[in-house]
Design brief:
About 35% of the residues lie in helices and about 20% in strands. It contains 19 helices and 27 strands. The strands form six sheets. It has a nine-stranded mixed β-sheet, with helices on one face. Strands 15-17-19-21-23-25-27 form a seven-stranded parallel β-sheet, with no helix packed on it. Strands 8-7-1-11 form a four-stranded mixed β-sheet. Strand 4 (about 160-165) and strand 5 (about 170) form a beta hairpin. Helix 4 packs antiparallel against helix 5 (about 80-95). This is TBCC domain-containing protein 1.
Length: about 575
């Protein structure tokens, strides 16, 4: 009888053509790619929820102010102040989407003369309490499971299998893996719903009962994680809109009288309707548009693969995934990239220029390569890379398991050094292209404040400050982007720090002195010719030794038959 009842309920839900899925953004750019502190576990978050509701008059509910979160995080959860601000700012910036507001905040922060003034500015900020609780809860997706570690699935980092661009299984970053996102929400749905319940709907042990009601406001908060469509519509709608659709009321238990949902019915409806994200990484790899941006290099079996889902729907940030670009220069400024989440995977000995305003960028398992990126609105994460250079203006930079990498950055937040890094170098952003300042305005990034030289060591095992250093001015050179574009930017936005500008000026003076010495040497025509040959030979040797010969060679336009595709 029980099985028959379950089957009948499943058939009833299937009859309502609502399709729900877990949103990509909260996991992809909202979750720090590191196991969360133990004090952010479900038990403590339930206590935090009760505390916040009980102190609604003090700025804890329905919106949580920065001073109250600082008190909870530092006083109750025993988090450091820097980590408390990191989580608060990460969530706040994720939802503060419009560039003008981002620029206003940057201007206000840059105008602060000291720490007290900065704290007063921060005290003006607040976030939706229920959504923030869910945001903190989903940090658990990167929690290392002791049980799974013991049986070999996860040690010491996530090893969930999912398709790669090559079509084979690959060990994936959980922040990108939409299959993990769905599994996490399905497994923890009961906990998350209970976290959103009003106190009178909970037992003494903070759990739900069969008669518990879920408020409409709680379902609105859950829209932070879940969205979907009605019937065969291509219009993406938030969960709370779909939940109020009349044909769903019988399944999700909505009552117009109480303006609330039956807890068990809502949970059951959500579980039945949750499906694979049609705009996630899995769908992008399986059915996304393949882009012929890269060339096949002769003498290698590696084949570059690039896919995107930009042709799907306008309401969702697009994805571009590229893998195995090898020994070549790839340069694009394209509508396909605008506002996209970009994943760059296993690219070696290459120079990649993506000169468009981007949403986020993840660079994984790359070696001996240079990445020049357009302004990145949310985050750049570098994982398991060796000897790469990244040149970017971005809201946030984080790195884990890197070795010998150099980051030339302009960023309004502290770079995050997670676990497993060695010989990291930071330097000021040092290049420009004609559309750069226009692209910065499009994503809401300014030249101040700039914390390129103030990294934050997030993990205990990364607490050794010797893992990073600031690039000495004597080793600093500007970077020239070798492509012509329309636009007004003619110099590095914000200029260079004094010590680095001084080093460049001194080097330029030496060149001028050398040119003057050569000019005044009184060489004959034959001597000048011999001298020119000598200099050219030395320059060629330098090009080969430094690897710059390959970069110059790869800038030569390909033959007509192998031309990189537009798009």
């Amino acid at each position: 009888m029980e099985a028959a009842a379950v089957a009948m309920e499943a058939a009833a839900v299937a009859a309502v053509p609502v399709r729900l899925w877990v949103k990509t953004e909260p996991f992809l750019v909202g979750v720090l790619p590191v196991p969360p502190p133990a004090r952010l576990g479900p038990h403590y978050l339930r206590k935090m929820a009760a505390y916040a509701r009980a102190r609604a008059a003090e700025g804890c509910f329905p919106r949580l102010s920065w001073p109250r979160w600082r008190h909870i995080a530092c006083g109750k959860l025993q988090l450091g102040r820097g980590l408390a601000w990191l989580y608060f700012e990460l969530f706040h910036s994720l939802l503060r989407g419009d560039p003008p507001r981002r620029l206003e905040w940057a201007e206000a922060e840059a105008a602060c003369a000291n720490a007290d003034e900065l704290e007063r500015e921060r005290s003006k900020l607040s976030v939706d309490t229920l959504q923030f609780l869910l945001f903190l809860y989903v940090q658990q997706v990167n929690k290392v499971s002791l049980r799974r570690s013991l049986i070999g699935e996860e040690w010491p980092s996530p090893r969930t299998k999912s398709p790669s661009l090559t079509g084979k299984s690959a060990c994936e970053n959980k922040n990108w893996n939409d299959q993990d996102h769905r599994a996490f929400v399905q497994s923890h749905l009961l906990d998350m719903l209970e976290l959103l319940l009003e106190p009178e709907q909970l037992t003494a042990s903070s759990h739900s009962t069969h008669s518990s009601l879920v408020s409409y406001e709680a379902v609105c908060a859950l829209s932070f994680l879940i969205e979907g469509t009605v019937k065969k519509s291509r219009t993406v709608r938030p969960l709370h809109e779909l939940a109020l659709w009349q044909p769903c009321h019988g399944q999700n238990g909505y009552s117009k009288v109480s303006r609330a949902f039956s807890f068990p019915k809502l949970e059951s409806w959500l579980r039945f309707c949750l499906t694979t994200n049609p705009f996630g990484m899995t769908a992008c790899l399986k059915s996304g548009k393949k882009l012929a941006w890269a060339q096949q290099v002769e003498g290698t079996t590696r084949r570059a693969k690039i896919a995107c889902n930009t042709h799907v729907v306008p309401e969702v940030f697009p994805m571009v995934i590229m893998s195995q670009v090898y020994k070549q220069t790839l340069a694009k400024s394209s509508d396909t990239l605008v506002g996209a989440h970009v994943r760059i995977h296993r690219c070696n000995e290459s120079f990649i220029y993506l000169l468009s305003p981007l949403r986020s960028v993840t660079i994984e398992k790359c070696r001996n390569s240079t990445f020049v990126l357009g302004p990145v609105q949310v985050s750049v994460h570098i994982h398991s890379c060796d000897n790469v250079k990244v040149i970017v203006v971005c809201h946030r930079l984080s790195l884990s398991s890197t070795a010998g990498c150099t980051f030339y950055i302009l960023t309004p937040t502290q770079p995050l050094i997670l676990s497993g890094n060695q010989a990291v170098s930071f330097a000021p952003f040092h290049t420009h292209y004609p559309m750069l300042e226009d692209h910065m305005a499009q994503v809401g990034l300014a030249t101040l404040p700039n914390y390129w030289d103030s990294p934050m060591l997030v993990c205990k095992e990364s607490g050794d400050t010797s893992v990073f250093h600031l690039l000495p001015p004597s080793d600093f050179y500007t970077f020239v982007i070798p492509f012509e574009m329309e636009g007004d930017t003619t110099e590095t936005p914000g200029g260079l720090p004094h010590a680095y500008q001084k080093a460049l000026s001194q080097r330029e003076q030496k060149v001028q002195i050398w040119q003057k010495t050569v000019k005044e040497a009184g060489l004959t025509k034959d001597q000048r010719k011999q001298f020119q040959i000598l200099v050219e030979n030395k320059f060629y040797e330098w090009l080969v030794q430094t690897g710059n010969r390959q970069q110059l060679d790869s800038l030569v336009p390909p033959a007509v038959g192998s031309k990189q595709a537009a798009g």
